[in-house]
């Protein structure tokens, strides 16, 4: 347990879709940060695999990014975000900010 995350993770519990080449599977996004994600999926992956992730947001909007698998403990996996468009980066930042704001208002 010697590694440290750059960004804190936020529990999101959102539906998503993973894709690797022609293979595609639904997933549940357990938590998310600006640099990584923890998922639950039945898609067989191994450390180092590159995946495409699409997360369903409010209002039917989608957030898409490319991931590299860092940790696998089936059915869960951890991955770092390796590529994301500026528009999707902004959506991700807003989603995380909104989540923090709503958490603080409940607490």
Keywords summarizing the entry:
single chain, 107 residues, alpha+beta, Thrombin, subunit H, 6-stranded antiparallel beta barrel, 1 helix, 6 strands, disordered N terminus
Q: How is this structure best summarized?
A:
With 107 residues, the chain is an alpha+beta fold. It has one helix at 86-106, and strands at 10-20, 23-32, 36-41, 50-56, 62-73, 76-84. The protein is built from 1 helix and 6 strands; from the N terminus they run ββββββα.
Question: Describe it for me?
Answer:
- With 107 residues, the protein is α+β, with helices and mostly antiparallel strands.
- A hairpin with a 2-residue loop joins strand 5 and strand 6.
- It is built from one helix and six strands; from the N terminus they run ββββββα.
- The protein has a six-stranded antiparallel beta barrel.
- The N terminus is likely disordered.
- It is 20% helix and 51% strand.
- It has one domain: Thrombin, subunit H (Beta Barrel), CATH 2.40.10.
